[in-house]
Amino acid sequence: MAGQCGCLSIICRQFHANFERLQVALNTVRTPLAAVIGAGGKTTVMSHWYRYLQRHGHPVVYTTTTQMWNEPDFVCCRDVRDFLSVCRRAAVNGSSAKIALASRGGKVIGIPPHWLNWLKRHNPGCTCIYEADGAKGRPIKGHADHEPVVAATTDILLIVVGGDGLGRRIADDSCHRPEQVARYTGLPNWARLGNQDLLTLLINDPGYLLRSEIGYKFFWLNKHRCTEENDGRSRTEREMAKRLDKYGVVVLRTTHRIGEGEAEVQDIND
Fold it and tell me: Is residue 113 part of a domain?
């Protein structure tokens, strides 16, 4: 139990450090749009980021351009006017909102990405974070040609990948679209993914680094196994930072999972 508490404390600090780093980028833009793509805990990262922004008094809108599991507090907007109206209220009142186009079969349907371009144009002054990718709960994914669904006016790109997919075979339910992962890494689908293979995927899969005009790009390796020594920068993290720096990608702190079957961190202490 003491070891688990120590791991939770480390995870809280890691999440908080990453959100502070992201906030520096958000502070440089009015009505910043931040897209979260990849796999391995995107929705969890987004939910914690949303609560971090709420607690620090930032008006924030949380949405998606794909599909995600429904939650009771999602508001469905019929058209772009409704969407902009909800965003404007959040900005004026210093509040927050979760927005979708519709709800169907336990999931919310994402808004069209051009609505986000309208949001930038009308500039109400709220932060918008949105999920732009789907991975069916897998830790790693390869992108199809139509993915991710990122608005043209996006300011910040956050790439999330699950470290629990490393060391596992591509075809063993560790990857969403395993044929694309094999294609971009040059590996057979029975091969196990290592750190260098993940870097190869990030660099070769055009869905990850996307357009060069996005001002800020961040990489977040999530769900590594936690030990109490992991509070410093891991070797994996240093390798990623060295290779991705030339592509203008900032590598955030690696965040860790506690272990199989154990509870994930539920909140982040200020």
Answer: no
How many C-beta atoms surround the C-beta of residue 148 within 10 A? Answer: 23
State the residue range of the domain holding 51: 2-56+128-257
pLDDT, position 79: 95
Amino acid residing at 181:
V
Q: Are 139 and 163 in contact (CB under 8 A)?
A: yes
Omega before 148 cis (within 30°)? yes
Residue 267 lies in a domain: no
Length of the chain: 270
Is the pLDDT confidence value at 162 over 50? yes
The partner residues of 210 in beta bridges, in order of sequence, read none
CB 185 within 8 A of CB 200: yes
Helices (H), 133-267: 178-185, 195-204, 206-209, 235-244
188-222 in b/e burial notation, b at 16+ Cβ within 10 A? Answer: eeeeebebebbbbbbbebebbbbeeebebbbbbbb
Domain count across the chain: 1
